[in-house]
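May I ask for a single protein's sequence together with how it folds?
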Amino acid sequence: MATHLTPNFCRTTTYGGSLYHDSPDAQAGTAFPFIPAGVLTEGADGNFYGIASSGGATGGNSGSVYRLNPAGVVTNLYNFKGKLDFTPCNLLQASNGYLYGMSTYSGALGQGTIYSISTTGTFAILNTTVRIPPFGACDLVQGENGLLYGMSPTTIFSIPPTPLITQTITFPLQQAFYGETITLNASSSSGQPVTLSALGGPGTLSGNQLTLTGAGNVRIRAFAPGDAAYKPATVDRTFLVRKASQTLTPFAAVPNKVYPSAPFNVTLPTASSGLPVTLYVKYGPATVSGNTATVTGRGTVLLAAYQAGNANYAPSKTVTTRFIVSAASP
């Protein structure tokens, strides 16, 4: 949006061609080789931009667009090729960084001109068919949708900025684990809806819901189409899908045993992943094969079980149970 200088900062004089500070401690002015008109616009770069209604290097005193830095140095950016009349409109700096202005009684049809100019002097005529009011109410404003708006004697008109405004997409990465469904959040600086599409990897996408079907990398594209004011925008994100964690249920109690005794089955814990669980002897007089245990002497036996994990699940924590093996009665 345009920012015009406050009345307490500086003004232009139409006759005599100067700019002066309207403050108690700065009465001196900056002399111009042309006649400035209207209000200065403060640019995002800290410089000030204005229009001259006459003067300039082009023959015929057609006027110009100039830049004034805070030190008072004036740089002529563009010399108009045709008369702008005595009431050029103030400049607007739009969100794309370009300056926009209008003039009355100019252009191919003599109805006025809407133009753009960069802060380095690249000039373009945008429209010569909209009739610009000859006196007052001739400034442009930028709407939240990025379009430029102005008034003619009979209507309020809109015109897209040229070049189109570059929009950005905010699409943050998120922590992701196998088996989850996560909600993706993407938005555009233009306010346009963002469309998501899956480019590859272990996941399925429905709207903004991403279901993770395996560990690995999932690539998602966010796209905002653009319109009369904004360029299209695309952002790709790669989500690292980590292995899911898993847990084991506790052991069922194993009764104490006597030695010698027959082999017996151990009820194994179950894994939340549904994967098979491995049983082993952590210490003590026993051996196991599958889920069958055999005692080999007297003492305390500690059995342990774990699940080793796979491509999608991380290994589980180990769970244990113990029982005592005593001597058989004589």
